[in-house]
Amino acid sequence: MKKVKKAVIPAAGLGTRFLPITKAIPKPMLSVLDKPTIQYIAEELISVGIEDILIVVSPGSDVIKNHFGPAEDLEKRLLEDGKQKLYEIERQTQRFNVSFAVQQTANGLAGAMLCAEEFIDGEPFALLLGDELIFADKDQTPCMKRLVDIFESTGKSVIATMEVFGDDVSKYGNIGIREEVDGVMEVSSIIEKPSLAEALSNNAIIGRYVFDGKIIDMLKTLTPRNNEIYLTDAMEVLANNKELLASTFEGTRYDVGDKFGYIKANVEYALRSEEIGADTLEYIKELAKRI
Ligand code: UTP
Fold first, then answer.
1. Atom 9 in ligand 1: which residue has the minimum CA distance?
2. I want to staple 83 with a disulfide (CB 3.0 to 4.6 A). Which of 78, 225, 235, 252 is the partner?
């Protein structure tokens, strides 16, 4: 059975919901505590044994490359100053096997995936949106591990979903389910941001996927709508062919590309932090009394 060895992280969007910071800083570089979102995502990949990572960036955006690249002067200075722990933290940013592709125009997620064609080379790959974090506790199965396990045992593309209710249903792609066995759903259809009445189920698509490499050829055959090709259109074809599975994930998802999601991620990661968790908790309790 095919193994998942590669991952693509699209990071070339305009990030308009987060202007003005995203004018010069790509959204996946927004920091949750002291680390950019995209580094958490690279760590998530390493933890499931996927080491070959391609990041799709916008033209002229060197910030992400610089983050994962060498910093000789900084390292020298940290060592000279005896700041061994900080030196190690800095070195951690260089342990990933990352390469880059440029998306000339931000023409959507499918456009970013097409920029990864050469890297993917017909092989299965994980796709992780650069502005979503998924935290799993020690006793939970990490989302990517679950997806990789399902792909490697069935050979079918698989997407992560979460349960949504009420108005939230209309914020996400929504799936219809043909059947479900042991928590693995076979997707029958996909609808983008449906009204509550149109929704096919309570399962919303989130930013973690594992695809068979042939999805790239499928994207190329699609007719653009509003000058854009849509990943969901390719997923619909897979669903019609009974080649698309879905699974909910264990853990907590943070949409760091949304202002409220960003605040929630920072507060919750701060609460989990050994360094400032206790102080943060005390502060939140004291703040709650004042407001
Ligand atoms: P979003 O759907 O959040 O779009 O992208 P966006 O353009 O970044 O942000 P808003 O909606 O204008 O605020 C989800 C992920 O896909 C990447 C983004 O960088 C983000 O990680 N993306 C999006 C691309 O790489 N290229 C694109 O053309 C669009």
1. 15
2. 78
